[in-house]
Design brief:
Radius of gyration: 33 Å
Mean pLDDT: 87
Largest sheet: 9 strands, mixed
Strand content: 5-15%
Number of helices: 16
Shape: globular
Distance between the termini: 116 Å
Helix content: 40-55%
Number of strands: 16
Oligomer: single chain
Low-confidence stretches: 1-7, 16-25, 37-80
């Protein structure tokens, strides 16, 4: 075939293709138009109808389910099959809801977990929903009442983050070594207590005021339900004020609100920079509970107690000392926000007196009270004005030095200090007694608890005790496994 013949044949083929395309062009145009119209309709349906349905755990995704599963009795013809994407959205919502409910159940709040699913607006007949509800009911039925007379209460001061600075041999080192706990010790304590079945509860879970048939309030015992073998306990922390004398000694400097809305801490680093992170009990305990939600009963956290003579939470809020400071008002405003953040996240707030005074009986009981009645009332009023005005009302008092306003006998109505504290709204009173794992006393209008100090002195005493029957911490942990080797020894009592 010549080149001319080949070119003529190629030209004929091109003309034939063009003819065929021209003949079918109207059909192509119609099909394209139909495709565009259908696609636009689908987009409009999703964008303005399905896309407006709530998709959160507490919102309803049932509209999306209904649109994908039309009722055959409606006479609307065949039920449309949900798309893969729509099904995935629905499945994701179910997963998120159950995950949220599971978190509540892990903290023994089965009623709340059940309510969350039942009130979600979603299809509770869905298989996974039914499985979750059945599981919660089964686990709830297995709970047993805790012994409300055998609840221990442990407490700490500010945790030592840098032992090299705290134990550097200066005038404050002895006090730190005696009454404070290191970060490593605290974390080991939490792990040991968790492994031994301890569960953190609120002091308000133990007993609370309830009105009788005549409207008169009186204290009644709570009813803490836990799995067999679990043991409730209360935790508190004193002096969460970050006093100026602690600067540069290896402690956090203040509590702030983190980017996630939870309370955390700031700490000044060696280079002068300020770092935000888990530098004290509050964020460390929060971290532990996030990892072990079954360590906390229905979201319980610890009690945080404040004095007032320097301020609270690391903010210089004491009017008597800092009212002329250019940051005084800003400090008060921020301290109030942080206090509310603590409350919002389950922490309970308490008084530790304004001036950290011996509020109770003198060392020699025959001498009566350690301070005068006038000074006692002035201190109580000052705490109310400078601290309670920031943190809101509280009914918990943690006695400084554990110095109670009475002996082990019940509070009497003729005790002037009890009556004054009661008039200020206090109902929970905590002293210190490490000689026994637990001590409680409930009256008609109060609850008293003894607290156990888990500090350097107590750890060293228990670690060096050769008589197993005299070890005071063995129900919680083995002190020898907890004691920080960075501590100077022997650890002597030093707390003025």
């Amino acid at each position: 075939m010549s080149k001319a013949d080949f070119r003529r044949r190629q030209a004929r083929r091109r003309r034939h293709k063009l003819t065929m395309m021209s003949r079918h062009l109207p059909t192509f145009i119609v099909l394209l138009a139909i495709t565009l119209l259908v696609g636009g309709g689908v987009f409009t349906l999703y964008r303005f109808v399905l896309g407006k349905q709530p998709t959160g755990p507490e919102g309803s995704v049932q509209a999306a389910v209904s649109s994908a599963q039309a009722d055959p009795s409606s006479g609307g013809g065949d039920s449309p099959v949900p798309s893969t994407e729509e099904t995935q959205v629905i499945q994701d919502d179910v997963s998120r809801l159950i995950a949220q409910a599971d978190r509540l159940a892990l903290g023994y709040d089965y009623d709340k977990a059940i309510d969350l699913i039942n009130n979600s607006g979603m299809d509770v007949t869905e298989a996974r929903m039914q499985e979750a509800l059945g599981r919660y009911e089964s686990e709830k039925a297995a709970l047993v009442p805790a012994d409300m007379n055998q609840i221990t209460h442990v407490f700490f001061h500010t945790l030592i983050m840098d032992t090299s600075k705290a134990f550097d041999g200066d005038k404050d080192s002895g006090g730190y070594n005696s009454v404070m706990t290191t970060k490593d010790e605290f974390m080991k304590m939490l792990q040991s207590m968790y492994e031994r079945g301890y569960v953190l509860v609120r002091i308000h879970d133990i007993a609370y005021e309830e009105a009788d048939g005549n409207g008169n309030k009186r204290f009644v015992k709570g009813n803490i339900m836990l799995p067999e073998g679990k043991k409730p306990f209360v935790m508190s922390q004193d002096d969460v004020c970050y006093y100026p004398y602690m600067d540069g000694d290896g402690f956090a400097s203040r509590i702030v609100i983190g980017a996630d809305g939870k309370p955390t801490c700031e700490m000044t680093m060696d280079d002068g920079s300020v770092s935000t992170g888990s530098y004290d009990l509050v964020p460390l305990l929060e971290d532990f509970i996030q990892e072990h939600p079954d360590f906390s009963y229905k979201g319980a956290r610890a009690i945080i107690a404040f004095t007032g003579y320097e301020g609270i939470l690391g903010y210089r809020t004491a009017a008597s000392k800092y009212s002329d400071s250019p940051t005084y008002e800003a400090d008060r405003e921020q301290a109030a926000k942080v206090a509310q953040c603590l409350r919002d996240n389950g922490w309970e707030l308490a008084s530790h007196s304004w001036g950290h005074l011996q509020l109770g009986v003198a060392k020699n009981p025959e001498d009566g009270f350690a301070i005068s009645e006038e000074r006692f009332r002035a201190d109580t009023d000052k705490w109310e004005a400078e601290v309670e005005s920031l943190i809101g009302p509280t009914d918990i008092l943690l006695y400084p030095y554990g110095n109670d306003i009475a002996d082990w006998h019940a509070y009497k109505e003729d005790n002037p200090r009890f009556k004054y504290l009661e008039s200020k709204g206090f109902r929970y009173f905590c002293n210190v007694d490490a000689s026994t794992p637990y001590w409680m006393q409930m009256g008609n209008n109060y609850l008293r608890m003894a607290r156990r100090n888990l500090d350097g002195y107590r750890l060293y005493e228990d670690m060096t005790q050769t008589d197993p029957s005299k070890k005071r911490l063995s129900d919680l942990f083995d002190a020898a496994q907890i004691f920080d080797s960075a501590r100077p020894t022997p650890v002597e009592w030093s707390y003025q």
